[in-house]
Amino acid sequence: MSVNSSRFDSAIGWSTRPDAWGSRATRFLFSALAVILFCGPLLVIFSGAFDHNPDPTKLSVIPANPSLINFQVAAENKIWHYLMNSLIIAGGALLLQLTVSVFAAYALARKKFRGQAIALLVILATMMLPEEVIAIPLSLVIGDLPLVHVSLKGTLLGVILPLGAWGFSIFVMTEFMKEIPSELEEAAKVDGAGELRLFAQIILPLCKPALGVIAVFGFNMIWEQYLLPLIVAADPSDYTLTVALLALRSDDQVGTGIVLAGALLALVPSLVVYLSLQKSFLRGITTGAIKG
């Protein structure tokens, strides 16, 4: 039985012939609907942040009264201080998380030791624990750090340290390193390369796609933290931008436009990180899909 391939020459089986107006119109409508669903909220945030609108119930995609007043009032509410707290935490925690992930993955993927499978299982098990379950134990540990008996309450380090290791990042790096041919490692050892040189010059450069993936996901995970900064904070000045936005939202004296201005500021770092690591991120996702 023959099948006319021209009827199935598009991704969803619609004809792309020049005279197929119905198919084109349907694709256009579905594409426009997807754009509205994904970009609509972003346009509302952008418009509301720059719109001096006293009525919080009226939002539009085009600012009726363009103004920077919302950012000025947000600055008076210390929004830039909260943003700086978030940037310091995100930068420090992400750097620590990447370091822990690559070293842990190198040990799990390239070395053999007793209890290796159990160690990986324990790391993966940490991903199954909701934040609410570990909130109280984590609060006790942060309040009285074991061995040194130091309290990290009210410090940015108290937020950075618990985020320094993430099971997802370690798992992704481990699986990626396992795919690196062992012949490269053996050839480097024959040439006299030591353990550190082997890791820094052979293994790590080949893991750039995976580093892009865990950097993007890791930054978003850290940036979206709410419960941990709230636990560590000893004063409202210790809040991150995520926590401060909810506090501003619950304040009757603060308008919707001010909250949207803060939300717009919260979106910018995530977009910058993704656009900066887009090539590595896409290569890592594609490589994982092909290997899978």
Automatic annotation (TrEMBL):
Residues 83-277 form the ABC transmembrane type-1 domain. Keywords: Cell membrane, Membrane, Transmembrane, Transmembrane helix, Transport. SUPFAM superfamilies: MetI-like. It holds the Pfam family BPD_transp_1. InterPro entries: MetI-like, MetI-like_sf. Its main location: membrane. The chain crosses the membrane at residues 28-50, 87-108, 120-142, 154-177, 198-223, 254-277. It is a multi-pass membrane protein. It is found in: Cell membrane. Belongs to the binding-protein-dependent transport system permease family. This is Carbohydrate ABC transporter permease.
